[in-house]
Amino acid sequence: MKEFKHFINGEYQASKAGKTFENRSPVDNSLIGMVHEAGRDEVDAAVQAARAALKGPWGKLTQAKRIELLNRVADRINERFDEFLEAECLDTGKPRSIASHIDIPRGAANFKAFSETLANHPTESFNLDTPDGKSAMNVGHRTPKGVIAVISPWNLPLLLMTWKVGPALACGNTVVVKPSEETPATTTLLGEVMNECGVPPGVFNVVHGFGPDSAGAYLTEHKGIDAITFTGETRTGEIIMQAAAVGLRNISLECGGKNPGIVFDDCDIEKAVEGTMRSVFVNCGQVCLGTERVYVQRGVFDKFLARMKEETAKLKLGRPEDPDANFGPLISLEHRDKVASYYKLAIEEGATIEIGGGIPDMGDELNGGAWVEPTIWTGLSDDARVVREEIFGPCCHIRPFDTEEEVIELANDTDYGLAAAIWTENTSRAVRVGQQLEAGLVWVNSWFLRDLRTAFGGAKQSGIGREGGVHGLEFYTELKNICIKL
Ligand code: NAD
Fold it and tell me: If 455 and its partner were Cys, which of 159, 295, 339, 466 is the partner (CB 3.0–4.6 Å)?
């Protein structure tokens, strides 16, 4: 049985109070191992270690040396690819075929992409004429923000955690990471990699535990934290924002979504079906950018729905190691119950179940796991809770529309504003509609195609701030202006 300890000041440490909790497999509910739960003492030790590293070896490194170390971390993750893959699949139950293409390689890439961006980004300089007929020169200078708290979710554990740790370290900060209680493994393993690569102790720290009255709250409330970057549910984001208000600490919030997919009559229907299948069902629907509302123009509605049902019927549920499986379980029995409650609600709200809608019979070995059927509904009203609330499961509602104006209004009729996908072969239409959608990310004839140099983040209740490329510099550094009178 595995044991997941905190990683503080370059060493694995148990909880002083001896408090642990179970980590169970979503595939069959078997026990993976025990996770140490941090109290205020462990969180404080991690923050102190991070503060000391900031002043000590890490703070004194040149940018070039820091970037060299982070490149080494990326390479080392790739060298230990199979261990990261196994750890991620054990925690999440997701198919290896998916984690080996998305989670692990992108997780490693996050340590390279941002250090390169940072190394090549200039700061501003302005010349100012002064009343004495002379001038002054203004020079922008970026310094690290300090100790960053990283609070990450369970759906893409390594990828979403390194997406924050990569730029934070590249900018010269130190971090204390609180991974999701559901997925402690890859973050813990990253500690070993940091030591192997020679990253000084205290630069990367990990504390395990839950949110309220546990490691998450203790970390975000800690006075030694200079800024908090969080990915997770909108409601949690609100709580973290309140914690950050004390001491005016900066925040970056990447939260929930109820993302629309818009399929126009003039789309390439096979492209639209293939892309929408991915955006609805990949990672068992547990992707913040995923589509849960699909709007299809009336001329292709029947054809699109029929093709989606055909493809959904082909999804193969199975264990991560099953080479034919492309659909795993949800993250936990608790989340399965939440998603199943929406499946029940859909019926109460009058949905037509086009396919799925229940809990599959996976056989004796797997029935203890968090499995649900991939599901498509039609026929719900626009104010149904199933159409308005984030479910975060493998399901969508498909509804017909007639005009561009109508679909823009429908797509924007939500509290969220994370992502949208548009399917059309008419580029003018794509741009026209894309510009009017209230979302931080709009894909045209694609989905989840990410260039790490571009801005990433949500509008409305999907988040605050943008990360990615140079945009992350705004959060991970302080921009100072030095004014020199000449
Ligand atoms: P969650 O909000 O329940 O938990 C996220 C993290 O916050 C976990 O580590 C958790 O322990 C911690 N946490 C919970 N309460 C806390 C508190 N009071 N103080 C400090 N920390 C606390 O989210 P989740 O269920 O892990 O993830 C799913 C959600 O994440 C979905 O809503 C999804 O849309 C969102 N998400 C958003 C993005 C994005 O980029 N916008 C990406 C992935 C997931």
Answer: 466
Residues 98-136 have pLDDT tens digits of: 999 999 999 999 999 988 787 788 999 999 999 999 999
The CA 116 to ligand 1 mean position distance, Å, reads 28
pLDDT at 114: 86
Domains contained in the chain, CATH given: 2-255+462-485 (3.40.605.10), 259-459 (3.40.309.10)
Q: Determine the pLDDT at residue 115.
A: 84
Of 220, 233, 253, 454, which is best to mutate to test ligand 1, by the most ligand atoms within 8 angstroms of its C-beta? 233
- C-alpha 318/C-alpha 327 separation (Å) is 6
Query: Which residues form ligand 1's pocket by a CB distance below 6 Å?
Result: 151-155, 160, 178, 180-181, 210-212, 216-217, 220, 231-233, 236, 239-240, 254-257, 288, 390, 392, 418, 458, 462-463
User: H helices then E strands: how many in the chain?
Assistant: 17, 23
Active site residue 288: yes
3-state secondary structure at position 115: helix
- Helices 81-92/63-79 angle, 10° precision: 70
Residue nearest (by alpha carbon) to ligand 1 atom 23: 232
Dist CA 256 CA 233 (whole Å):
5
The answer for residues whose C-beta is within 8 angstroms of residue 172's C-beta and 6 or more apart is 58, 59, 63, 66, 143, 144, 477
Instruction: State the distance from the centre of ligand 1 to the C-alpha of 72, rounded, in angstroms.
Output: 29
334 flagged as catalytic: no
**Contact, 385 vs 356, CB < 8 A?**
no
Q: What is the pTM of this model?
A: 0.97
